[in-house]
Amino acid sequence: MNAQIGTVENPLRIAIIGSGPSGFYAADHLQKQKDLIVQIDMFDRLPTPFGLVRGGVAPDHAKIKSVTKVYDKIAADPNFRFYGNVEFGKDLTHADMLKFYHQVIYAVGAQTDKRMEIPGEDLPGSHPATEFVAWYNGHPDYRDYKFDLTQECAVVVGVGNVAMDVARILASSYDELVKTDMADYALEALKNSKVREIYLLGRRGPAQAAFTNPEVKELGELEETDAIADINEVTLDPLSKAALEANPDSTIQKNIEIMTGYATQSPKGKPKKLFMRFLVSPVEITGRDRVEAVKIVKNELFQNKDGTLRPRATDKFETIKAGLVFRSIGYKGVALPDIPFNDSWGVIPNKDGRVHDPKNDKIIEGEYVVGWIKRGPSGVIGTNKPDSQATVNMMLEDLKQNKCFSPALPKREALESMLSEKKVKFVTFGEWQKLDQLEIQKGQALGRPRLKYTRVDDMLGALGKK
């Protein structure tokens, strides 16, 4: 390894673009390298850190959000700096990376939804689930979005944990939601919601559903909603049964046990109903000026050449009258300026975390990816830890061979001077902690755990940065 890099006199300078779990886990693994002095600068477009933990995890899942305590410890390292309210491609460019850093990690996640590509998908009342999730979580980009909650029936397409979150939030009572850190405007809108029926649609069978045991169990514990399933749809087909017998999976078996309970118990007469449907796909959303109904087709499973079980349409159709549709069939990443991007996969092309340029089939030295923008939208928060560690190991391997940038201005002061010249009002981690305490205090005054700032201007104003 070049002796000059990673010493007190010449610390290894790392930039991390994005402040979600994968970025923090990468920072943590870098900090644990005993033989290296590493300075880490983490950037986020918003003044607030933690990515989807703040903006994506459901408000009623406080335990999952508590993982930020781990990230607080990582950020407390004296060689770590957070720069919030700094947008990559605008306030900080790809050319700046080469100027200020030895290596850069892109940890920007997957920010948009995949489309269903069916007629009527763009009718008013049809939304990506990510927009609804970001709205009720107080994300500044989405806080002014509108969702017509005067409708009595909503359809949620997908059976992953995000789809379950959307369905559960729609099915929750005001008393259940007021205990959470949900954005105040969303809480008020959901308090007045007229939604009484929610349909969850899975295109494959119950054994292929992506949700976890706690997510499906919670549906049966809601104050105002009966969880209902069809015994014919939750009973395993022969192919799924054989696959599960060959490869037993306790999570799948428990899911089916819980859903069989929903199918065989009598509804308790609660004011709302949540229907779990399997082996059905939406084929058309209909309505004159807005969503009025969803046409679905019944599917059957077949075994693909690769051994996986896939759905195919039958000739049986039905129509669900509904005024709201939320699609949750997968996330996609968004391209960054001047960085290679695979549009069909929605990821930055890479080999073992090293950014790869498919145009010339070469690894781009000094540039790396972690998390969903590396591997696609799979796994839970904890999945990002080994993923980030694997990428950092590649970075350390490359550093030994001097495969990194040669920055002209490797001092942190040079970066901050550039940001100041551009009049970028960056937010430090200490300033975020001040915002954090203000949100908690505002919430406690109302008997709630937190009252979020949902506008960037308000965040900067609270910090005296306007």
User: Total strand count, please?
Assistant: 18
Radius of gyration: 24 Å
Instruction: Based on Cα principal axes, name the global outline.
Output: globular
Q: Biggest β-sheet: count, sense, barrel? A: 7 strands, mixed
Structural class by helix and strand composition: alpha/beta
Please identify the top-level CATH class of the largest domain.
Alpha Beta
Number of domains: 2
Number of helices: 18
Going by CATH, the architecture of the largest domain would be 3-Layer(bba) Sandwich
CATH topology of the largest domain: FAD/NAD(P)-binding domain
Helix content: 25-40%
Hey, roughly how much beta strand do the residues contain? 15-25%
Across the major sheet, the strand order is 3-2-1-4-18-17-16
Q: What is the CATH superfamily of the largest domain?
A: FAD/NAD(P)-binding domain
Spans of at least 5 consecutive residues whose pLDDT stays below 50 are none
C-alpha termini separation: 45 Å
3D architecture notes:
- The chain has 466 residues and is of the alpha/beta class.
- The radius of gyration is 24 Å and the shape is globular.
- It folds into 2 domains: 12-111 and 333-427, NAD(P)-binding Rossmann-like Domain (Rossmann fold), CATH 3.40.50; 114-329, FAD/NAD(P)-binding domain (3-Layer(bba) Sandwich).
- Helix content is 33%, strand content 21%.
- Strands 3-2-1-4-18-17-16 form a 7-stranded mixed sheet, with helices on both faces.
- Helix 1 (21-31) crosses helix 15 and helix 7 (161-171) packs parallel to helix 10.
- Helix 1 (21-31) links the parallel strand 1 and strand 2 (38-43).
- The chain is built from 18 helices and 18 strands.
- The mean pLDDT is 95.
- It has helices at residues 21-31, 52-55, 62-65, 68-75, 94-100, 129-136, 161-171, 174-177, 184-191, 213-219, 231-234, 238-246, 250-264, 372-375, 384-400, 412-421, 429-444, 456-462, and strands at residues 12-17, 38-43, 80-83, 103-106, 112-113, 126-128, 153-157, 197-201, 225-229, 272-277, 280-286, 293-303, 309-321, 324-327, 331-332, 350-351, 354-357, 362-369.
